[in-house]
Design a protein that fits this description.
The complex is a heterotrimer of chains A (366), B (332) and C (346).
Chain A (H helix, E strand, L loop, with lengths): L27 H35 L7 H8 L5 H35 L12 H16 L3 H23 L6 H25 L2 H12 L7 H21 L3 H4 L3 H6 L4 H23 L5 H13 L5 H23 L7 H22 L4
Chain B lengths: L4 H16 L21 E5 L2 E5 L6 E3 L4 H7 L6 E3 L22 E3 L6 H6 L4 E3 L7 H8 L5 E2 L12 H11 L3 H21 L7 E7 L5 E4 L4 H8 L3 E2 L1 H4 L7 E4 L11 E6 L5 H4 L2 H5 L1 H4 L3 E3 L3 H9 L2 H21 L2
Parallel strand pairs in B: 3-4, 3-6, 4-5, 6-7, 8-10, 8-12, 12-13
Antiparallel strand pairs in B: 1-2, 8-9, 9-11
Helix pairs in contact in B: 5-6, 6-13, 12-13
Chain C lengths: L1 H10 L3 H25 L7 H9 L6 H35 L11 H16 L4 H23 L1 H4 L4 H25 L1 H10 L9 H19 L2 H8 L2 H6 L4 H23 L5 H13 L3 H25 L8 H19 L5
Helix pairs in contact in C: 2-4, 2-15, 3-4, 4-10, 4-13, 4-14, 4-15, 5-6, 5-8, 5-9, 6-8, 6-13, 8-9, 10-13, 11-13, 11-15, 14-15, 15-16
Classes of the chains: A mainly alpha (366), B alpha/beta (332), C mainly alpha (346).
GO molecular function, one term (chain C): transmembrane transporter activity
Main location (chain C): membrane
Keywords (chain C): Cell membrane, Membrane, Transmembrane, Transmembrane helix, Transport
Chain lengths: 366, 332, 346
């Protein structure tokens, strides 16, 4: 049971971030060239993702039971459209589109953060028990306490935070150990999911169905009362996460080296976990635990941007794009039924996950 | 956005719509009211406060459980309807004698699809039997259309048939007709009581069985028990004493004797009734072994009984009273 | 081969006596658990009534029916499923040389669950008897997938993290496929939500009868696996030097594992952590020899599952907590303790 065995799925980037260290002077020119190419790749892929997000956003605002032309969308946003159009665009679709955008951003960023912090591609909040904690608290809130929307959101946030605190308390002895954190999370998560299934049979069918929708993750119920708090939370958390994430490359060198480089390892790691969990909590409170977004964004971002720290904003952008696009599909997949967006992200995520696992095996390192 | 702002905004929008006049709606299609018995505007009390409906509604969206068939009973065809009992097609059970001239858009019951509702351009939204949360009401209210939510005390689908009928009737300007329907059904109950005096005071348990073979009993205030009480029967004391969760309480298979009463009514949930019929534990319930078990094997009857609507109960009444009466006659 | 056996036997002096005492203890525990399962429940029945219903020839009464139609079938099923899960746990941990391997964590539950959803949703199966076959097939398939994906068949050693994550990930992936069906079909959802809580209640004897042949076959094969697992525990190279063929050993153990875990899950629904706890408890009592672990798991698994079931009957009267929920709620802390205490991870 030694650490190298855990390596196959470890390290989202593939190549270590500092594989170009220790160069001589004659390599400096090559290195500069590499850096420039890397920066170009970062910018080009970033711009492409941003453009796609904008397009998906506008499409979300314009399609629906009553189509609104993109120009009219613009008019509605600037307040010069007909009242009917303004109702549809500003009141019904804008909160939905914003929620999808922000939920995707938060989950994509948090997932990539956890994956790098715990050095494991599978270590996303979906799988290491954090979503399970939010789910158990939310379902208990509706079934046992009869909470409705706002109460459920609060319960979910508290559940996510409490579960993470518990996992941390159980694993944080002499510094954080990624593998142990993951294992304890999986164990606690499976216990909590049993509680969820128990509560589901205590509830009436209609209440159980409402819970099922929530558990899948949905932006169908988005409205301003939930979108505004989400926006505020993201405005604070996303920059904080990006700033804190600058320490990641040093953390990835190992605790001893990072400490030698003057990094307060314990505190930085705790802060990163806290920001990650808060991002997840904000997203879950607004839309429920939308499945697999957190899982797939990190590796996709790495593929788009190349390894290294530049990939975090990419992960956020890919998350936003994924949720926006999935929501569009979910609305029209089955006629007359607006499915929760989590159904689509799950359908994309599940095969990807199996692919990931199978790949890890064929590399023969498991 | 602060929650208090929302109702205010909604009210503002509603007021604006009022000022602007409601001429923008599609032309009346002939199914509209010929002779409204109420003069508009009308004000309907709900759990979320009084709702004012400025004009005779022409395009009604019925979201609550049994709202569509109640509106239909009052001669108004909704343009959109939620199909709570998953009947399919236009969502009307066989107990509804009316037919739609234009089938409504059937809306899902999982989540309210605001856009789909808005696309129907309603001028009235009925939601009188539903989970009845403030949140749901606030969301619907954003459309700037009068929303008639649950009446007071109707949380968790517990709106009684009388409250539903009265609320829907008032909102549609057909209070008189609603009163008439209520009198009719009450008369039917009274006739049944008069015809079968043995029902009076007979204790009853109404239950259901799920896939895992577990049973549950409906509790006081639930539609099923109300139906039986309208017939003069009384909820068995051992059930009335149990702690409740919503409108029913689970019964362990080891405590099937709790189902014993003068009359025991049982419904299958989602399944055919043979599993209940063949269950030795069901057969061994004293009332059942004495021939006083009433198993609602017919899916239509069972659903009409569960619909707790005027027409559902009219249908269920006809088909269950003879059996209930026979069972009550055999009671000790 | 003899050399292998000798070194193992010699390594633990006085082992025989300890094993015998442990076996006796476990059998007594199991008898107690069976008795408790027959005597304790939501309805209060005097022991005399229970005895009369079981062995007497009195008339059928509602009370005697509770004994013969409620408590007896669930006790029989718990014994069968418990034995299967306990032994499966020993097999899984031995094969993967991994202290956290367990049928539930390997994702077998989710495989069975998906198959059951398909059974209800696509083929209109609506009885528990009908679910059994689908659940069995699904669990078997998931075992093959997770096992293959995590690379159990290759080197025999799988890191705890890779295994736990593979199981959790497969569970999450299949779960979201299931959700699509559930959201579009309320009746299906209503059936499924009751099945997906692992429980030995509400299943009549015909369910146990259908699962029994698979479980018995699995147990018979598993009981021959002691030497195989012992050899695998030494690592493939050493095992080969003792003249064993690790690939063949692993295949036989894998077949037994799939038979046992698949049949148990199909019959009782997803019940986690029994397979995790049993091998650990036994290793603490008698040491790591698989030739004793496997037979000892036979009484230990059922005793554990029965006690969980009985506990679930009395915690929230007049309702019940399903055995699968009890084992998960008790098992999760156990799992965490294991991960913390043992040097599962460096």
């Amino acid at each position: 049971m030694d650490a190298p065995q855990a390596a196959p799925l470890a390290r989202p980037g593939g190549a270590p971030p500092h594989d170009a260290g220790g160069t001589g002077r004659e390599d400096a020119g090559v290195l500069r060239g590499l850096r420039a190419r890397r920066r170009r790749r970062l910018l080009v892929s970033g711009a492409a993702i941003a453009a796609a997000v904008v397009i998906a956003f506008v499409v979300t605002l314009s399609v629906g039971a009553r189509p609104v032309a993109p120009l009219d969308v613009l008019a509605a946003l600037t307040g010069s459209a007909s009242p009917g159009t303004e109702l549809v665009v500003l009141r019904l679709r804008l909160p939905r589109a914003l929620t999808a955008l922000l939920v995707g951003t938060a989950l994509g960023l948090a997932g990539a953060l956890f994956q790098r912090l715990l050095r494991n591609r599978l270590a996303s909040p979906d799988i290491i028990g954090i979503s399970a904690g939010a789910s158990a608290a939310a379902v208990a809130g509706t079934v046992l306490l009869g909470l409705s929307a706002t109460g459920v959101s609060v319960a979910a946030v508290l559940g996510a935070l409490a579960t993470t605190a518990l996992i941390l308390a159980l694993t944080h002895r002499d510094g954080l150990h990624g593998v142990r954190f993951v294992l304890v999370g999986v164990g606690i998560g499976s216990g909590l999911l049993a509680v969820v299934s128990f509560l589901m049979i205590r509830a009436s069918l209609t209440s159980a169905q409402e819970n099922l929708v929530w558990l899948t993750g949905s932006v169908n119920q988005a409205d301003w009362s939930r979108t505004v708090p989400l926006t505020v939370a993201c405005a604070a958390l996303v920059p904080a996460a990006l700033v804190l994430a600058r320490a990641l490359p040093r953390l990835e060198l190992g605790d001893d080296t990072a400490t030698a480089l003057g990094l307060p390892v314990g505190r930085v790691r705790l802060a990163l976990i806290a920001v990650g969990v808060l991002l997840v909590a904000a997203a879950v409170a607004a839309a429920g635990p939308v499945s697999f977004v957190a899982l797939v964004c990190g590796p996709l971002a790495t593929r788009a941007a190349g390894p290294g720290r530049g990939s975090l904003p990419h992960a956020a952008g890919i998350g936003a794009l994924l949720v926006l696009a999935s929501d569009l599909v979910a609305r029209y997949l089955v006629a007359d039924v607006a499915l929760p967006v989590g159904v689509v992200t799950g359908a994309i995520g599940a095969p990807y996950l199996l692919l990931l696992l199978a790949r890890a095996r064929t590399r023969g390192t498991t | 956005m602060p929650r208090r702002l929302l109702p205010a905004l909604a009210a503002l929008t509603a007021a604006l719509a009022l000022v602007a006049g409601c001429g923008s709606g599609p032309a009346a299609d002939g199914t509209g009211p010929a002779a409204a018995d109420g003069a508009f505007p009308v004000t309907v009390p709900t759990a979320f406060g009084d709702v004012t409906i400025p004009e005779q509604p022409q395009r009604v969206v019925a979201l609550g459980w049994s709202d569509a068939e109640t509106a239909l009973a009052l001669g108004v065809e909704p343009v959109g309807a939620a199909d709570w009992l998953a009947i399919g097609d236009d969502g009307l059970g066989p107990w509804v004698p009316q037919n739609y001239t234009t089938p409504p858009t059937v809306l899902g019951t999982l989540e309210v699809d605001l856009e789909a509702v808005a696309a129907l351009e309603p001028d009235l939204i009925l939601d009188t039997r539903a989970a009845g949360t403030r949140d749901r009401y606030d969301r619907l209210n954003q459309l700037g259309v009068p929303v008639v939510g649950i009446p007071a005390g109707g949380e968790n689908y517990l709106t009684t048939w009388r409250d539903q009928l009265r609320t829907v009737g008032a909102a549609l300007g057909r209070a008189e007709q609603a009163g008439q329907l209520q009198d009719d059904l009450e008369q039917r109950f009274a006739d049944a009581r008069a015809q079968h005096p043995q029902l009076a005071g007979a204790t009853v348990v109404s239950g259901a069985r799920n896939t895992l073979g577990e049973y549950a009993a409906y509790t006081a205030g639930s539609g099923r028990v109300t139906f039986l009480e309208e017939l003069g029967m009384a909820l068995a004391p051992q059930i009335a004493a149990l702690p409740t969760e919503g409108f029913s309480t689970p019964i362990s298979r080891e405590r099937m004797n709790l189902l014993d009463a003068d009359v025991t009514v049982m419904q299958p949930i989602g399944k055919d009734a043979t599993e209940i019929e063949n269950d030795p534990l069901w057969q061994a319930v004293p009332s059942v072994s004495a021939g006083r078990g009433v198993l609602l094997s017919d899916r239509d009857v069972s659903q009409a009984f569960s619909a707790a609507s005027v027409q559902g109960w009219t249908y269920a009444l006809e088909r269950t009273v003879p059996r209930l009466a026979d069972a009550a006659t055999a009671a000790p | 081969m003899t050399a292998l056996r000798d070194t193992q036997a010699a390594a633990v002096p006085g082992r025989r006596g300890r094993v015998r005492r442990t076996a006796l203890l476990l059998v007594v525990l199991l008898a107690g658990a069976v008795a408790a399962s027959m005597l304790v429940g939501a309805g209060h029945l005097p022991p005399a009534v229970v005895a009369d219903a079981l062995f007497g020839d009195g008339p059928v009464t509602p009370q005697s029916l509770v004994v013969t139609d409620v408590r007896l079938p669930r006790t029989v099923l718990a014994v069968l499923a418990g034995a299967a899960l306990g032994v499966a746990g020993v097999l899984a941990q031995g094969m993967t040389r991994n202290p956290i391997a367990e049928p539930g964590l390997l994702g077998l539950n989710s495989g069975a669950a998906l198959a059951v959803v398909l059974a209800i949703g696509l083929f209109g199966v609506s009885t528990l008897t009908g679910y059994v076959w689908f659940g069995f097939a699904g669990a078997a398939l998931a075992a093959v997938v997770v096992g293959g994906v995590a690379g159990i068949g290759r080197s025999g050693t799988v890191s705890p993290a890779a295994l736990a994550l593979a199981g959790a990930a497969v569970a999450a992936g299949l779960g979201s496929v299931i959700t699509v069906f559930l959201l579009t079909n309320p009746a299906l959802f209503d059936d499924y939500r009751f099945w997906q809580v692992g429980s030995v209640a509400g299943r009549d004897l015909s369910i146990a009868a259908q699962a029994a042949p698979f479980i018995v076959a699995g147990l018979v094969i598993a009981l021959t696996c002691g030497p195989r697992l012992n050899a695998l525990a030494l690592g493939d190279d050493v095992a080969r030097s003792f003249g064993r063929r690790p690939g063949a050993d692993r295949l036989v153990c894998g077949i037994a594992l799939v038979l046992l875990a698949g049949a148990a899950t199909a019959a009782a629904g997803p019940i986690a952590f029994v397979g995790l706890a049993v091998p650990h408890l036994l290793r603490g009592l008698t040491g790591p020899d698989h030739r004793t672990l496997l037979p000892l798991a036979l009484p230990a698994g059922p005793a554990l599952l029965l006690l969980a079931d009985v506990l679930g009957r009395v915690v929230i009267p007049p309702g019940e907590v399903q055995a699968g929920v009890v084992t998960a709620v008790i098992g999760a802390p156990l799992f965490v303790a294991l991960v913390r205490r043992r040097r599962v991870v460096r």
